[in-house]
Amino acid sequence: MPQNPSAEERMSQVVSLCKRRGFIFPSSEIYGGLKSTYDYGPLGVELKRNLCQEWWRSMVHARDDVVGMDAAILMHPEVWKSSGHLSGFCDPLVDCRTCKARFRADKAPQQPVGSPASWREGGKKSGASQRGVVGPQGILCPQCGSPDLSEERQFNLMLRTSLGSVDPLGALVAHVAANPGQAGPELRQALDALLRKEAVYLRPETAQAMFVQFANVQQSMAMKVPFGIAQIGKSFRNEITVEHFIFRSCEFEQMELEFFVEPGTQGEWLKYWCDQRLAWWRAYANVPENFRLRPHDAKELAHYADACFDIEYRYPWGYGELEGVASRTDYDLQQHARATGSKLSVFDPQRLNPETGKPGWRFTPYVIEPSAGATRGLLVYLLDAFCEEQVADGKGEASSRLVLKLHPRLAPIKAAVLPLVKKDGLPELAHKVMADFRRAGIRVQYDEQHAVGKRYRRHDEVGTPFCLTVDGQTRTDGTLTVRYRDSMRQERIAADQAVAVVARHLAAQPGTPAAG
Ligand code: GAP
Hints:
There is one protein chain. By secondary structure, the chain is of the alpha+beta class. Helix content is 32%, strand content 28%. It has 15 helices and 25 strands. The protein has helices at residues 5-20, 42-61, 77-83, 85-88, 168-178, 184-198, 207-212, 214-220, 266-283, 331-340, 374-385, 426-440, 452-461, 472-477, 498-507, and strands spanning 24-26, 38-40, 66-68, 90-95, 102-104, 116-120, 129-133, 153-156, 159-162, 199-202, 227-236, 251-261, 291-295, 307-315, 318-329, 346-352, 359-363, 366-373, 386-392, 398-404, 415-419, 444-446, 466-470, 479-484, 490-494. The chain has a 7-stranded mixed sheet. A 5-stranded mixed sheet has the order 22-21-23-24-25, sandwiched between helices. Strands 5-4-8 form a 3-stranded antiparallel sheet. It starts with a helix and ends in a 9-residue tail after the last helix.
């Protein structure tokens, strides 16, 4: 049973708006869709690009100590051996023998070992009711509540493929023919080893390329520690459980920074990046209090981290991760240096070597990694912006309006240009305003369908912060009406000042009060 029906309802309203208004569509929908893959439609792609652009602006362009890169998704397979992903990037997988669901043991409902459990035969509502006790794993099937579960096994989340004209099946067929006596786990292990030989992987995080290219970036750009490398791009994980729309999917986008610091300074830099990142997310939000910082306890820490904080958001189903800010030590650089013999360290002639006390210190930098989900961030801002409110309509009667109160910098369309009627020269005047915006590089949309009130509501729903209405008065005195999305306030401004007015609002620092 949903804990909070109104929150559940809000989520389904956002999902429905995403499809109706061209933000997000299920992938390959006319073929029945594909598990947890999504396509970003005309407005979704603008929103995602705006979000990524804001991140890039603040993490790269606004700083002297960070440079960007854009790496290939496919990397040498040994990268994933050195990073620990081949052996350790696994989730505990369990099968339910009753309803055949496959799920993550660490996310399943827990109950004391030996306590009573009840479920329906076959996991179906019509099945006979059954009783039993919770097994040694202390968990139940999240779908049907059965305690009749398989042993837990480790499931690697990396998506495997092959590159070039290799035929992985050929090697398997040859092996089976040459080893007729092999069966069961022995055969499985042998075939898996053969597959691994030819395998390449879709990256499960963008981070590794920034470690592997550390020396190239540092030397080509003459960067001095502390400095960072930033990247935005797709990552892939064969998630056992995909959930909550685009919150957890198999293909998603990350915005990651690897910030290289002197050993011993990682604590202060971790605090710095936690503060920076939390403030960044809050600056674009209507309800900043819904974002919080949560420290990882020792049990949660990844094998490479000596400390980590999650920036969490209050989703309709409760608090959950939006970004991780990890102190990754020198683990990755050391691992790649060891595996390849490359020098992934820096030399500072001015610093005293802590061991010898003499000037000149070569060290492997420690890393602070703020790692955010771009697609998850997009969901967060849609949830934050979604609003249904009661307002008075043109006749003064109460009506409800759906509005996406997206920060103007994130809004897919910055302004809609609306001729009041489709005649009397108003479309021509409106197109002149459109041309001014296009010259200024500001995304605008022309809209002449339906009554103007209906057009306002349509743009409220997609988060357009400004509607510019061209009417009879525009012809006589050269003014138009600007209507502000959130307050619905209207004022007349000179049509040739419309770009400047909108640009001024867009230039305002995020975190300042909303326009209008
Ligand atoms: N390089 C570190 C790293 O990848 P992570 O916590 O696994 O750390 C970072 O991922 C962020 O990427 C998460 O906070 C989340 O926003 C996003 N993310 C991770 N898995 C995801 C998935 N399956 N679907 C959507 N976003 C995901």
